[in-house]
Design a protein that fits this description.
One of its GO terms (molecular function) is fatty acid binding. This is Acyl-coenzyme A oxidase. Belongs to the acyl-CoA oxidase family. InterPro entries: ACOX_C_alpha1, Acyl-CoA_Oxase/DH_mid-dom_sf, Acyl-CoA_oxidase, Acyl-CoA_oxidase_C, AcylCo_DH-like_C, AcylCoA_DH/oxidase_NM_dom_sf. Helix content is 52%, strand content 10%. By secondary structure, the chain is mainly α. It folds into two domains: 147 residues, Butyryl-CoA Dehydrogenase, subunit A, domain 2 (Beta Barrel); 339 residues, Butyryl-CoA Dehydrogenase, subunit A, domain 3. The strands form four sheets. A three-stranded antiparallel β-sheet has the order 1-5-6, covered by helices on one side. α5 packs antiparallel against α6, α7 crosses α12 and α12 runs antiparallel to α13. The longest helix has 36 residues. The chain is globular. The N terminus is likely disordered. The chain binds decanoyl-CoA and flavin-adenine dinucleotide.
Length: 563
């Protein structure tokens, strides 16, 4: 150490006055890491967490398994300047003993609602020294002379680039949620096709899937599987293109634009996919009646395992704001400043080039036959996004005119405006991509019919949640518009009902993986359920407490009050 003790402590003292954020593994958190970080002249960093509130918790694998952590910390240079969040590799455990390294307090946070196959940990640091090389330096570095250097002029841009790693997780979670959706719907549709209940006469009982209500509850989610499956794969391919650009050190404007668009898309695709799955799993649980509540049938586990997809890698409600910020930047840059519109590299903004024309449109469909096509919800969605974009922008301006700060104006414009805007934008993008796919000549003709129906159903059903805004902005007028959307949804559900089991067979994993007696591919729900129940541990045995209870049983009346 080139600092003498005195000067080192002086620096520590000055640091004490600051509250810094250190994020372990990934950036964010509920509990802040109040940490001090010094650059040592021997080019070591020193990390400290002043108290338990500074503990970073929830880190996947850190509780029991991981030996090294990626820590996001505020980087301070010896001149006292803070350069913002940077990623550091820190060894937290000895790989031979799995015991904590000196100065590191690391442990497991305990049982969670789900995902207990993975340990989540906490960590605190006390004077932990790490070499200068442990700073991952793609967005900022320290020279051998101890100077901070970065290729980014704007600290916010450097911060954004540093958070770019989170996009990959969000793209991944979008797909993970689709998998959960597939599992739950496979179980519920197979069960509903086999489970008979009531009927038109005393003698005849019909499968519950024959009921319009059951179809309306489940088949739109089946359509959502196909739409979101295609969309999430296409997003993953976009993400790969972006990663290849990063690896090839592509510094072009296009590469930077792809990064921003992926960020906007993934911050909304994760909410769309995880919320769709979460709502679907609950619907499936109820659609399977009491058996849906039996642990062995798996729906409870799927619900609990999908649940954190709504929270980790950024809470859905929080990251949706990143998407609406992106869209609002577009409107300010290209619309109100009078510049001509540009096309976004991944195409999700291209339709905004016709912003004014789209806004002047109204719903023109008059008969159900025309409404059974995905081009109908697609047009409506384009109008919806343009309208919500305009209204969100105006709402923020209005808040500012009332004297609100930028921070307050944004916060007060989320509900009914920016939040809905981000959701409508991602639903439109998912629908547009699936629509293009189902109309592509490379798709075999024999499959196109059913895929187009699924696409139309997904579009109409998603759109039906925005009916109030469609009337509010004048796209819909009169009750006929809603009637057409509703009757088309029911017609498509009924048309797809006979294909539902075959469609499930194309997406369900093997019975071994699905692991649900009522969801098995053979449809023998009662045989499978009966067999699983009888094989249950202790199913036919007396309760474990019986012996204790009967050998030490109080006499009847002996516990009665003596007075
Ligand atoms: C394979 C799948 C595996 C799944 C397992 C998952 C396990 C889960 C693990 C975790 O949960 S790890 C922890 C994950 N933590 C988070 O996701 C943190 C969520 N919070 C945030 O990302 C930030 O708080 C947030 C960006 C939402 C808001 O931060 P700020 O309000 O300080 O930032 P701001 O909005 O001012 O953004 C600064 C700039 O960075 C940009 N930016 C932010 N994130 C970016 C990103 N990811 N890519 C590109 N740009 C990004 C942003 O657009 C903006 O650009 P502009 O200045 O040009 O407007
Ligand atoms: C199973 C699991 C695994 C995880 N694994 C990891 C991991 O490996 N590494 C890691 O670093 N983290 C991990 N996390 C933590 C996770 O990333 C965070 O929980 C997540 O980012 C949400 O942050 P938070 O918990 O601080 O929520 P908070 O930000 O405290 O949010 C609480 C509530 O407040 C609302 N809210 C917050 N800010 C706003 C706002 N600006 N406007 C409106 N509403 C707002 C949110 O919508 C939310 O409903 C994990 C979490 C879970 C559940």
């Amino acid at each position: 150490c080139l600092f003498d003790k005195h000067s080192f402590h002086d620096k520590r003292k000055r640091r004490k006055e600051r509250t810094d954020f250190v994020k372990c593994n990934k950036e964010d958190e509920l509990s802040l890491f109040k940490t001090k970080l010094d650059l040592h002249v021997h080019y070591e960093f020193i990390i400290n967490s002043p108290d338990h509130e500074a503990a970073k918790i929830w880190i996947g694998n850190l509780g029991k398994t991981a030996t090294h952590a990626l820590v996001y910390a505020q980087l301070y240079t010896p001149d006292g300047v803070c350069h913002g969040l940077h990623p550091f590799i820190v060894q937290v455990k000895d790989p031979k003993t799995l015991l904590a390294m000196p100065g590191v307090m690391v442990g497991d946070i305990g049982k969670k609602l789900g995902q207990n196959g993975l340990d989540n940990g906490f960590v605190l640091f006390c004077d932990v020294r790490i070499p200068r090389e442990n700073l991952l330096n793609s967005t900022g570095d320290i020279t051998p002379e101890g100077l901070y250097v970065t290729p980014y002029k704007d600290p916010n841009k450097r911060f954004g680039a540093s958070l770019g790693a989170l996009s990959g997780g969000r793209v991944g979670i979008t797909r993970m949620s689709v998998i959960n959706l597939k599992l739950a719907i496979s179980i519920a549709i197979r069960y509903s096709a086999a489970r008979k209940q009531f009927g038109p006469s005393e003698e005849e009982e019909i499968p519950v899937l024959e009921y319009q209500l059951q179809q309306w509850r489940l088949i739109p989610y089946l359509a959502a599987i196909f739409a979101l499956d295609y969309f999430s794969k296409s997003l993953f391919i976009n993400f790969l293109e972006f990663q290849i650009g990063l690896m090839m050190k592509d510094n072009s404007d296009r590469q930077a634009e792809i990064g921003r668009e992926i960020h906007a898309l993934s911050c909304a695709s994760k909410p769309l996919s995880s919320w769709t799955a979460q709502q679907a799993v609950q619907e499936c649980r109820e659609a399977c009646g009491g058996h849906g509540y039996l642990t062995m049938n798996r729906i409870g586990d799927i619900r609990n395992d999908n649940d954190p997809n709504c929270t980790y890698e950024g809470d859905n409600n929080v990251i949706l704001q990143q998407t609406s910020n992106y869209l609002l930047t577009w409107i300010m840059l290209y619309l109100f400043s009078g510049k001509s519109t540009n096309e976004s590299p991944l195409g999700s903004l291209n339709f905004l080039g016709d912003f004014h024309t789209i806004l002047s449109k109204v719903f023109e469909v008059t008969v159900e036959d025309e409404c059974l096509d995905s081009s109908v919800p697609l047009l409506a969605y384009k109008w919806l996004v343009c309208y919500l974009l305009q209204e969100s922008y105006l709402k923020i301006q209005q808040e500012k005119q009332m004297g609100k700060s930028d921070f307050e104006a944004k916060n007060n414009s989320q509900v009914y405006y920016c939040h809905t805007l981000a959701i409508a934008y991602i639903e439109l993008t998912a629908l547009q991509r699936f629509h293009d796919f189902t109309h592509d000549s490379s798709v075999p003709h024999g499959l196109q019919t059913v895929l187009k129906k699924l696409c139309a159903l997904y579009g109409l059903w998603s759109l039906s949640k925005h009916i109030a805004v469609l009337y509010q902005g004048g796209y819909f007028c009169g009750k006929k518009c809603t009637e057409l959307i509703q009757s088309s949804i029911l017609t498509l559900c009924s048309q797809l009902k006979n294909d539902a089991v075959s469609l499930v067979d194309t997406i369900a994993p093997s019975d071994f993986i699905l692991n649900s007696p009522i969801g098995k591919g053979d449809g023998e729900i009662y045989k499978n359920l009966w067999s699983a129940i009888l094989q249950g541990k202790g199913a036919l045995e007396r309760p474990s407490w019986w012996m204790t209870f009967s050998s030490d049983k109080p006499l009847v009346g002996s516990l009665r009050g003596k007075l």
